[in-house]
Amino acid sequence: MEYIYRKNESTAYQWKDGQGLKWNCERKPDGEVFADVRKKNRLDTNDVLLNDKACIVVEPCKKKLGFFEKVAGYIPCSDKNGASGYIRIVKTAGKKIAATVIILLILLAGGILGLREMMKPGDDTPIRIASGEMTNPNPQNIRIPGIERVYVDAGDTHVQQLLLNVEGNAYNLQYTIELEDTGEVIYKSKVIQPGYGIREFDLTRTFEEGEYNILVTVNSSAREEEADSSEDAAYNAGQLEAILIVE
User: How does DSSP assign the chain, residue by residue?
Assistant: First the structure.
C-alpha cells in the first residue's frame, strides 16, 4: 500500500525521520489513521509513505502501543483511493524508561540493603572470625587478646571493637566492661565460642568527650558439650585495664 503525503503548511510541528527528512505533523488526527511509522521500523513491509522527495516504510497500525511507546503526532496523507487520513508517529517514551530505570535501581538498592541487613547478625551477636587473625596453639591455657583502648563518639553508644575468643581456646568467653572508679557495668557480651568474636556492640549509655578508665573482665566457661551441671563451670579468666576514649 502506498500513501501520499499531504503537506499542510498550517500543521503544528515537524517530525524528522530516520533519514533526517522533515514531515509536517498534526497533534491530533482529524480522520482515519492508516498506519504507524517509527524512526526505525520493526517490521519489513511493502507499505510506504511517499512525497516528491522521499519514501519511508510504514507498519500496520497497532491497536495498543507498547508500555515504553507513545504517539508523537500524525502525518497527513491520502491512500491510493484518494481518501484523506494520517500516518501515526510512534516513538520511545524516554521519560517513562528513565522513571522505570530509577524505580528499579531504588528497588534493587533497597533489596540489597535489606538482604545485607537480613544476613548481618545483631550488633553483638558472635560471628565466625577467620582463624588467621589469632589462634591459641596450647588449649591448656586461655589466650585473651589485649585491649588497651576502646573508642566511641560523644553522645553515641555504638562501639566498633573486636571481642574475640581465639580459635584453639578450650572454653567459651564472656566480656564485661565496667568503669574502674564506680564499678558501673556499661557492657556485658553474650557467650562467645572459640573461633568466634563480636566486632561491634552498644554501651548501656552515652558519655561526654574525655577519657575514662575501664576494666575489661573476661569470664570463661566450659563449652556446652563439656559442661558439668554439678559444678559452676564459669570462672574468671583475666582482667584487662583499658581506656574508654570518647571523641
Answer: -EEEE---TT-SEEEE-TTS-EEEEBSS-SSEEEEEE-SS-SS--S-EEE-SS-EEE-EEPPSS--TTEEEEEEEEEE-TT--EEEEEEEEE-HHHHHHHHHHHHHHHHHHHHHHHHHHSPPTT--EE--GGG-B-S-TTS-------EEEE-TT--EEEEEEEE-BT-SEEEEEEEEETTT--EEEEPPPB-TTEEEEEEE-SS---SEEEEEEEEEEEEE-GGG--TTS---EEEEEEEEEEEE-
- Rounded to 5°, angle at Cα 59 from 57 and 62: 155
Number of neighbours of residue 198 by Cβ within 10 angstroms? 24
What's the half-sphere exposure (Cβ side, CA atoms, 13 Å) at 43?
12
Share of the chain above pLDDT 90, in %: 36
Return the C-alpha cell found at 139: 588449649
Amino acid at 122: G
Contact 27, 73 (CB under 8 A): yes
Q: Please calculate the CA angle 75-76-77 and round it to the nearest 5 degrees.
A: 115
Instruction: Express each pLDDT in 186-235 by its tens digit.
Output: 999 999 999 999 999 999 999 999 999 999 999 998 876 555 544 445 56
Highest mean pLDDT among 61-70, 78-87, 137-146, 201-210: 201-210
Write down the residue that cell numbers 568467653 correspond to.
173
Cβ neighbours of residue 84 under 8 Å, at least 6 residues apart?
Answer: 6, 31, 32, 76, 77, 78
